[in-house]
Design brief:
The two termini are 32 Å apart. It is built from 10 helices and 11 strands. The strands form 3 sheets. Strands 6-5-4-8-9-11-10 form a 7-stranded mixed β-sheet. It is α/β, with parallel strands linked by helices and 271 residues long. Helices cover 38% and strands 17% of the residues. The N terminus is likely disordered. α1 packs across α5, α6 crosses α9 and α8 packs across α9. Bound molecules: S-adenosylmethionine. The site of S-adenosylmethionine (SAM) has 24 residues, from α4.
Amino acid sequence: MAAPGSNGEWMVVGPRRGMPRRGIREKPMVRAKALEERESWTPIDSENDPEGVLKLTCKVELLMKKMESSLFYHALMKQIEDPEVFGCFIRVLGSSSQMQMVVYGIGSIESYEPPRLQLSLALLMKRKFSWIGDIEVFDPILSKMECEVLESLGCRILSINEQGRRNVLKPTLFFMPHCEADLYNNLLQANWSADSLKRIALFGNSFHTYKLASELNGSIVQSAKHVLAAAEFADEFKVEIVSDDFLRAFHDSSWHFFGSVLESKLPSIFS
Ligand SMILES: C[S@@+](CC[C@H](N)C(=O)[O-])C[C@H]1O[C@@H](n2cnc3c(N)ncnc32)[C@H](O)[C@@H]1O
């Protein structure tokens, strides 16, 4: 089972995360900064590891093959192609032929399987749907080697830590698997107008679950006012986990769309 914790972090009961596994290089410790200032970013390390890049790239490609033939993937593609969900993507696209994908908070693709599975899904979606454009990726914990792997798989790494506050000017799918509530909140806060929200599709932790958790445990509210407000009007479609292999990577995830809110009905939120 999974549940949002008191700080809005997504928790799953299972093997402890963050424990370096044997044989895996320990990552430099990067403390998450307060999600406020935008700043330029480069990976902390500067290690050249062409062999590691090749090995990890192959590992992700193999995982993509495994995912592509899974029941989970087929169910997810069916969900996206369902007229109700697809209609939401079409509304986000408007008159554009493509929406770009921004991947925030993917985690360490070298150290953990869930981030690799999440990345595999993003790459498979781009490959399958012609309406998905370029993929941009940012996570402050990425190593130089991981950045090179992502680039070799066709992604562009952002050199600015936007703290999730990207001002959305064109249709964009934000792929934010299991990010912290603050990051979703920053994104929504930066785009808190009906005109901007309608250009956003968001894959991430279920806003509905945040809402339920806030009713039980008010402490999440401070960092997630926009998330909780958006939960009231978002069209949310929960991702169905049809096999245990994908549980850790995708539990409690949903597609969210915000195009149905009218400017006049958008609540004012003062932080
Ligand atoms: C709870 S972890 C989830 C990691 C991975 N998606 C998973 O499910 O295992 C949240 C991730 O968000 C990243 N993060 C923190 N601040 C960020 C920012 N400003 N922009 C993008 N990612 C950020 C963290 O480094 C961390 O990897």
